[in-house]
Specification:
This protein has helices at residues 88-100, 154-163, 169-182, and strands spanning 9-18, 22-30, 36-44, 47-53, 59-67, 72-76, 79-82, 102-115, 124-135, 148-153. It is an alpha+beta fold. It folds into two domains: 9-44; 47-112 and 121-182, Nucleoside Triphosphate Pyrophosphohydrolase.
């Protein structure tokens, strides 16, 4: 077994599409095996940020919204995109305020860096646990989102994950990692 496996080699690249959230590039490459391969990569302009808020009663907050890619409603922990020019903690504080109308006195990193779908994107995700919650009266909502906010006991959120009622991968990671750490 070699310490440094063979790497992909790029022969050419072209931008296929770009907007304010993503850039799609197509690469002609040589795979680590030596075979020619066509590879598409979605570059994410923002970080993925998520938070598991826990209140004094052991409840968390789920955010419900219609998700365009799957054409269905999804229950998730507060999460969204954050500028790579800010720290993940600065960005996730904004997400908690924007989506749940909350601020937190205490924060703990839950996931330092996670690659969301590393076969086709370069998206990096960071997650935190927040407690010492209070209402954030300065909260500003995103005009493109119609959100429902639901306060549930942490154990109920886990049951929703176990039953398949929660399907968002980032939410599942945060719930299960927190549950593992609490055991």
């Amino acid at each position: 077994m070699t310490d440094t496996p063979a790497r992909w080699r790029i022969k050419s690249a072209r931008k296929v599409y770009s907007n304010r959230w993503i850039t799609v590039r197509e690469y002609e490459t040589v795979a680590p095996t030596g075979a020619d391969a066509l590879y598409g990569l979605v570059h994410m302009h923002n970080l993925a940020l998520g938070v598991l808020p826990i209140d004094q009663d052991g409840c968390t907050v789920l955010i419900g919204q219609q998700r365009f890619p799957f054409g269905r409603y999804s229950w998730e922990l507060p999460e969204g995109g954050g500028s790579p020019l800010l720290t993940p903690l600065e960005g996730v504080k904004r997400e908690l305020s924007e989506e749940a109308g909350l601020k937190a006195e205490h924060w703990l990193e839950l996931v330092g860096e996670m690659h969301m779908s590393n076969s086709v994107t370069d998206e990096r995700a960071y997650a935190f646990i927040a407690w010492g919650l209070s209402a954030d009266d300065s909260s500003v909502k995103d005009s493109s989102e119609e959100l429902s906010v639901r306060r549930v006991p942490f154990a109920e959120a886990l049951k929703m994950a176990d039953s398949g009622a929660i399907t968002d991968a980032f939410t599942l990671v945060m719930l299960y990692k927190a549950d593992h750490l609490l055991r």
